[in-house]
Amino acid sequence: MNQFQYSRVTHSNAAVSAVSKEKAAMFIAGGTNLIDLMKRGIVNPTRLVDINRVPLNEIKTEGNSLIIGALALNGPVAESKLVTEKFPLLAQALNAGASAQIRNMATIGGNMLQRTRCPYFYDTTMPCNKREPGTGCGALEGFNRMHAIFGFSDQCIAVHPSDMSVALAALDASVLVIGPKGERRIPFTDFHRLPGDKPQIDTNLQAGELITSVTIPDNGFNKNVHYLKVRDRTSYAFALVSVAAALQIEKNTIRDARLAMGGVAHKPWRLTEAEKFLIGKPVSEASFSEAAKIAMQGAKAFKYNTYKLTLAPNSIVQALKVAAKLV
Amino acid sequence: MKKKPNKNTDIIVHNDSRRDFLKQSTLLTGIALTPEIAVKAAENQWDEKLAEAIEKIPLKLEINGIQKTLSIEPRVTLLDLLREQLHLTGTKKGCDYGQCGACTVHVNGTRVLSCLTLAVMHDGEKITTIEGLANGDELHPMQAAFMKHDGFQCGYCTPGQIMSAVACIREGHANSETEIREYMSGNICRCGAYPNIVNAITEVNKGGKNI
To answer: Which SS3 state, helix, strand or coil, does residue A241 take?
Structure first.
């Protein structure tokens, strides 16, 4: 690991100013991805600004909304009554991620900022436009079993690894950030970006901006929800495909729906067309299969991930069936 | 030059003097030293030794109930501090990338991976390692249960497994085999002692002792 300078701050303004002053300075919170990346020489900050003592770890409700401080830890958030009772989809997604140890370290803000797990990104002997822009994409013609089927570019076909973010995308969350120019709120579906010709940039955060909280409006998706994660082993693995499904059901008719997929794109992949289709439809496997078909429009696979073209729609149907308590 | 904390901000720790110092010292070296001495300086790593002294940050930790006042480089992970500087080698370095759980310790009572956190981030916190689990010569109930149920073969993952297992019960996630397997999934055992590990945890949990 390269040497760096270390500062500890106790206020978000101090954090922003410390990081803004130095081009290669970074915030550090849980560190569960950043320290990994620094050990491998993929990220080489000249300064780490430790924000762990900034008081941003509160979980609270405001009106009907849930507000989670950016430094709240994944494990405690998943176990918080406010979350398990009103936003069980988020609790399920958080518990599907990483291990108990990592969930005790990883923060809510850091979770959404974790980098892709594309093996070409982590192997510094391989080309990767995300790690070193202009070197090419190793995965495009390489071992691309884990890779995207939506929203990729010829520069990058990596996927975003966060489970939590898939639930937040489905639940209409928004992210509050503070930066050198003050505060702003970013809808969660606009927080991450597609690779395009700048795959090195994962999010729409500007330089020096710090995530302070995430807000989830209470849209009444607390009864019929399911987070389905399909992976190579039962636990402690990244998703091949994951689905966050939330329904509002009245007399066997779908009143409202939220759907998002993980493991298929450079960002959490919200399925708005499929959601629209489901509204007013009867609760049935036929409705769910049709929604899955709509969701898969435009999907394109690579040499080793064609299985995702089958796994993804099947996962959508299964997640919806579990959410609707059909299974 | 060491900066004074700015009143408008509240940065507690500064150590931005090192690079400036190195730039100056390199310049002076170029002017004042003969090549022979410069070579000797490089051989003896004077710059490195000097840099290390300046770079180090004071740190107070309570490790297994004992207060430690330390001085460390910020890039030292908690795992490396425990093993390399404090010689508490019970905590194991498996993958060093957060994939195996061999380095699991408790920080302020919760289980974390010591390889994925910097020691300097834990100033003032309480660390418990496998060495701090037993009560003198009396094994912790989880250590005894691992021996009774043969919860290991090579033993390399065992300290991490035991630290994780104790936390698993304290968290209330040891109520069925499925739950134990899920909440212990961050600890990999390449010998495959999983069934025996599950048995050890189940027995300690059923014992109902306050561990």
So the answer is: strand
